[in-house]
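So, can you check what follows?
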Amino acid sequence: MSKQDWRKLDESDVRVRPGKGTRPRSKRRPEHADAESAMVIGVDRGRWTCAMESGAVVTAMRARELGRTPVVVGDQVGIVGDTSGQPDTLARIVRVEERTSVLRRTADDTDPFERVVVANASQLIMVVALADPPPRTGFIDRCLVAAYAGGLEPVLCLTKADLASADDLLALYTELDVPVIVTRFDEEPAELRARLTDTVSCLIGHSGVGKSTLVNKLVPDANRAVGVVSGVGKGRHTSTQAVALRLPGGGWVVDTPGIRSFGLAHITPDDIVKAFPDFAEAAEECPPGCGHLGAPEDPGCVLDELVPDAPGRLTSLRRLLASRAGLDDYTD
């Protein structure tokens, strides 16, 4: 282009790329008043299986506006999009309702990362075999701690009563008033079935204790894999993901993978004591940082003064506190 042609140009000939707007992005999010209620019954690689109130089972993804909001089995959620449940359809989870209870655990007592096992369950069914593999009281104590801290009612379910007596184990938990159900392989779990009806309950236990066998009896079409116990007394993992199964008589049972460890790094001693109303008020007078274990670990613990009134119950409470502090004999 010649100099003469340049002189003929004016500002209308100049193309300017528009810049970014100065108006801030709105933080308002859609209210989704039309969202339908559902319960999360399964999680798998970024997809959530949800049971609608209509009975349909829907696959959903997490909406972008939820960010990294955790969504776990048992959560009550709001869903929009295609909620027909037809094959190859996908809905969106746009809201997670406030939880009424949460069962959490960590990989071990030093792991700062807590894992939510299930939300909104009313009962924690601790499935423990009386033999093959032998019962581990440390595991039971830790489950009790997690249940009390998370707002679930603990229930002890003892399996394989045809192989061993439950008397010695039950004697350890008499003072805690924990409901106990004893089952046998050759009998239907009628008492357990009645306990679970019309509730959301979570089953937890080591692999090989008969948890999947119970689930298959409670929900005949569940087809949960059943494993065997290894030569070292530990079961093989047969359930790999937590899943909520609808009970024929009403309610839900959440079957969780068999676990080898139950860390309590996220729970404080005060969280445990709060579950014992007869000790909670007195514990408020303890020195700061008191672990409520008594001397020599916690000299000056006010709970020591309550021993004459409730020695058995205080012993049970301190056994749970010892589990939290890693002073128990719990092994994986």
